[in-house]
Amino acid sequence: MVKDTRKANVTQIYKKGKKDDAGNYRLISLTLITPSLKVMEQITLGTVFRHMKDKKVIRNSHHVFTKQKSCFTNSENFYYEMTPLVDKG
């Protein structure tokens, strides 16, 4: 489904002078910019992820933020690391 990008919401911005005078408002168009936002989102996400990986911001124990790991694998890992410590007292 292709959206019509020519459609826009139009709103008024007050410039100066008397607020009851229609000539003191400027009309602006709020157009659809979804494709640009998606590209910018992907660029930003990639940059942030690379920075976090390079600077080792995300440790191995942060399973939710690491590919192919989840809350379940985090719980499982915690269990296997803590069981010997509990056994030792």
Describe the protein.
With 89 residues, the chain is an alpha+beta fold. 44% of the residues lie in helices and 16% in strands. It is built from two helices and two strands. Strands 1-2 form a two-stranded antiparallel ribbon. The radius of gyration is 26 Å and the shape is elongated.
Cα-based radius of gyration, to the nearest Å? 26 Å
User: What class, by secondary structure content?
Assistant: alpha+beta
Strand order of the largest sheet: 1-2
| Biggest sheet overview | 2 strands, antiparallel
Enumerate the spans where pLDDT stays under 50 for 5 or more consecutive residues.
Answer: none
**Overall helicity:** 40-55%
- The geometry reads as elongated
Mean pLDDT score:
77
Brief overview:
This protein has 89 residues and is of the alpha+beta class. Helix content is 44%, strand content 16%.
Keywords:
89 residues, alpha+beta, two-stranded antiparallel ribbon, 2 helices, 2 strands, 44% helix, 16% strand
Topology, please?
Elements: E1 8-14, E2 25-31, H1 34-54, H2 71-88
Antiparallel strand pairs: 1-2
